[in-house]
Amino acid sequence: MSATRHQPVLLAEVVAALGADNLGPRDGAIYVDGTFGAGGYTRAILEAANCTVFAIDRDPDAIAGADDLLRRYGARLQVIQGRFGDMLRLLRERGIETVQGVTLDLGVSSMQIDEAARGFSFRFDGPLDMRMEQAGESAADLVNHMAERPLADLIFTFGEEKKARRIAKAIVAARALAPITTTARLAEIVRRAIGPAGGAERIDPATRTFQALRIAVNDELGEIDRGLAAAETLLAPGGRMAIVSFHSLEDRRVKHFMREHAGRNPKGSRHLPETTASVPTLRLVTPQGIGPGDAEIAANPRARSARLRVAERLADGVAA
Ligand SMILES: C[S@@+](CC[C@H](N)C(=O)[O-])C[C@H]1O[C@@H](n2cnc3c(N)ncnc32)[C@H](O)[C@@H]1O
Fold this sequence. Notes:
The chain is an alpha/beta fold. The chain is built from 14 helices and seven strands. A seven-stranded mixed sheet has the order 3-2-1-4-5-7-6, sandwiched between helices. Strand 1, helix 2 and strand 2 form a beta-alpha-beta unit. The termini are far apart.
């Protein structure tokens, strides 16, 4: 099947947020798009000002799709295959010490989800893969080799799935008959194990298990922590980070990081690792975050759960 083109979410809001007073990118400045995808944000930033964008994506397919934009924008666009968690090193290797803005649009693209061969979705049958980078341990490796208890913990923690123990038990029983190698078989095992979702929740019973495996395979939460810390270091005073997340696990991390570094959350959170920011380095631009309006949700249902959080880098030693 052919992959859908990714529709950028909260695009106007992200681009505006990258500039002081929400006035957007400015001429001569440098921005990082840490999740290039189909290039929706990158293109809009490059159109908004005569600036330079360093665009990073860990997926070789996304990088291969950058040719049109590279032809159009020449040296104003620098495309890098890598992880945004490594952005400090990636930028410093290219001689860049500070930037004016960093944006991250977390999670997977429509191209990745809709391509059966990538194995991200229970809606299509494909190999149980889920590796954004197309290298390393796949989801099949995890479900076929992890012991039952850690597998249950993984599904519980990264999928926020209350029935994780039952699911892990069913996976271990099924793989004793034959290795689990396809998305359709895993989805069927999960559906059989826990039955349809009750109450008002009408999501597929396999949703949370697939989310958990994807997060684990790609170390997505570790990447968020490293990416935010790198962005904070790279931003020049007055520079901004604009981060879009799609589920509560991501958003909680972003919110916590920004609050902590804005001096609002000094004791840390019960659910997250302790951090030790003492002097505030960030100012919260959107303390509550921003969601999409009704028109965007109607045009792009995938935008429904998106949340944008923006913070501005303070000069060292300035009170928030
Ligand atoms: C939601 S899409 C971004 C879409 C993009 N904003 C656009 O307008 O087309 C997320 C992209 O980020 C990439 N990605 C996810 N985690 C990453 C990481 N840690 N480092 C680099 N790229 C990552 C994925 O491969 C995917 O292409």
